[in-house]
Amino acid sequence: MDDITLVAQLDSDTTLYVSPMHDQMYDEFVDADNLGGPQGYFIARERRNQFEILGKAANLDAAREIFGMLTSAYRSAR
Predict the structure, then answer these.
(1) In 3D, which of 72, 61, 65, 67 has the Cα closest to residue 45?
(2) d(CA 4, CA 48)
(3) Cα end-to-end span (Å), the chain
(4) Chain CA centroid to CA 69, Å
(5) Tell me, what DSSP letter sits at residue 35?
(6) Span 16-69, pLDDT tens digits
(7) Which helix (H) or strand (E) holds 6?
(8) In this structure, what DSSP letter does residue 12 have?
(9) Contact (CB, 8 A) for 64 and 29
(10) Fewer Cβ atoms within 10 A, N terminus or C terminus of the chain?
(11) Which of 29, 32, 54 lies closest to 43, judged by CA?
């Protein structure tokens, strides 16, 4: 898996991230294994200093597509 991170500043309070997560970080920060393990790309949002995992994509192509949809939808809604 490539260590590629996509980042978009959506507004002054909100940043969107798409990134892989290393095994140790997954074990430390994901309470329940309801995301299917550390493989894949995690879609996360940081808003007002609160970090939240929104979902997960199986591969980089899917991650890029989700990232594009989220960022274009956000910009269209403004």
Answers:
(1) 67
(2) 24
(3) 34
(4) 13
(5) T
(6) 999 998 888 888 877 776 788 889 999 999 999 898 888 999 999 999 999 999
(7) strand 6-11
(8) T
(9) no
(10) C
(11) 54
Cα–Cα dist 8/16, whole Å:
5
Long-range contacts of 62-66 (CB under 8 A, 24+ apart): 63/6, 63/18, 64/6, 64/18, 66/18
Tokens of 22: 């290393």
| Amino acid sitting at position 3 | D
Residues in the chain, total: 78
CA triplet 31, 52, 30: central angle to 5 degrees?
A: 15
**16-52 burial string, b = 16+ CB within 10 Å, else e?**
bbbebbeeeebeeeeeeeeeeebebbbbbebeeeeee
Distance CA 22, CA 30 (A): 11
For tokens 């199986």, the residue is 58
pTM tops 0.85, yes or no:
no
